[in-house]
């Protein structure tokens, strides 16, 4: 997936939450020539998150390093699209399966240095997809999972409850 494909994906967002940020991300991707998938680029990487509702709550995972509740997410690996990443990460982290997948947001996340992984501080351009939960039997989750209501989440995630 080339940067032009990522820009095209951004253009598919029907109701942008932050138009100025979206424009900034488009420009950043247009001017970036290095590989962004995987972890080969120390400054900027592509990630993808899954927004999945159960009734009026969204699934969150407890991030093992940041120790905070975040959307299930991970790095877009070589040979993978952001949609595939979000779906894979949701399954790995929660043990649950999803279907569908519609791009709803793109965000820049500041990632602090992680000396354990020998990673410096960097940014993620995070593509966020809305999925539907399936009826399949749950598998073992990799991380602690929690359903959170609009009142429980930080401001960053509140707009997703209006979609």
TrEMBL record:
It holds the Pfam family NUDIX. The keyword Calcium does not apply. InterPro entries: Nudix_hydrolase, NUDIX_hydrolase-like_dom_sf, NUDIX_hydrolase_CS, NUDIX_hydrolase_dom. GO terms for molecular function: hydrolase activity. Gene3D superfamilies: Nucleoside Triphosphate Pyrophosphohydrolase. Residues 43-163 form the Nudix hydrolase domain. Keywords: Hydrolase. Belongs to the Nudix hydrolase family. This is NUDIX domain-containing protein.
């Amino acid at each position: 997936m080339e940067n032009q494909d990522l820009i095209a994906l951004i253009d598919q967002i029907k109701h942008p939450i932050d138009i100025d940020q979206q424009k900034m991300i488009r420009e950043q991707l247009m001017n970036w020539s290095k590989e962004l998938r995987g972890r080969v680029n120390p400054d900027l990487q592509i990630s993808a998150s899954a927004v999945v509702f159960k009734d009026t709550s969204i699934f969150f995972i407890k991030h093992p390093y940041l120790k905070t509740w975040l959307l299930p997410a991970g790095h877009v690996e070589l040979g993978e699209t952001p949609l595939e990443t979000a779906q894979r990460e949701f399954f790995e982290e929660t043990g649950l399966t999803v279907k569908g997948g519609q791009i709803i947001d793109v965000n820049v996340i500041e990632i602090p240095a992680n000396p354990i992984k020998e990673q410096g501080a960097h940014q993620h351009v995070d593509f966020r997809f809305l999925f539907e939960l399936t009826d399949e039997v749950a598998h073992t989750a990799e991380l602690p999972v929690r359903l959170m209501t609009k009142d429980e989440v930080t401001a960053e995630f509140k707009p997703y409850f209006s979609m």
